[in-house]
Automatic annotation (TrEMBL):
HAMAP family: ClpS (MF_00302). It comes from the Bacteria. It comes from Thalassococcus arenae. The keyword Lyase does not apply. Belongs to the ClpS family. InterPro entries: ClpS (IPR022935), ClpS_core (IPR003769). Binds to the N-terminal domain of the chaperone ClpA. This is ATP-dependent Clp protease adapter protein ClpS. GO terms for biological process: proteolysis. Residues 23-102 form the Adaptor protein ClpS core domain. GO terms for molecular function: peptidase activity. Keywords: Hydrolase, Protease. Signal peptide: none annotated.
Length: 106
């Protein structure tokens, strides 16, 4: 049809730009909590095993939790964070330690 309205233009002659918003998926912090009973070596092992830390790094993070009460041990997508929390809680429970691991939106 002659004189058709160009794409992106209504019959007002005003071009409305629609910018595609690419949303990043939300990230979640995985937190490890201190308690009085879980052995330090067990926590170090958890950090090495489930969070890929070196022994030195795991020891340092464990000490931070021990002194401050809590520390962020990683930041992940919802699904990965949920998996890590589940793995830690399950491993701790199987070894009868009261270690607590939680997640919260960043
Ligand atoms: N506070 C514990 C102890 O003295 C060690 C510990 C560290 C426990 C970190 C939990 O997330 C934790 N044996």
């Amino acid at each position: 049809m002659a004189g058709a309205t160009p794409p992106g233009e209504g019959d007002t002659g005003v071009v409305v730009e629609t910018r595609q918003k690419t949303k990043r998926p939300p990230l979640y912090k995985v937190l490890l909590l201190n308690d009085d009973y879980t052995p330090m070596e067990f926590v170090v092992h958890v950090l090495e095993r489930f969070f890929g830390m070196s022994h030195a790094q795991a020891f340092e993070v464990m000490l931070t939790v021990h002194k401050k009460g809590v520390a962020v041990v990683g930041v992940f997508s919802h699904e990965i964070a949920e998996t890590k929390v589940g793995q830690v809680m399950d491993f701790a429970r199987r070894h009868q330690h009261p270690l607590q691991c939680t997640m919260e939106k960043e």
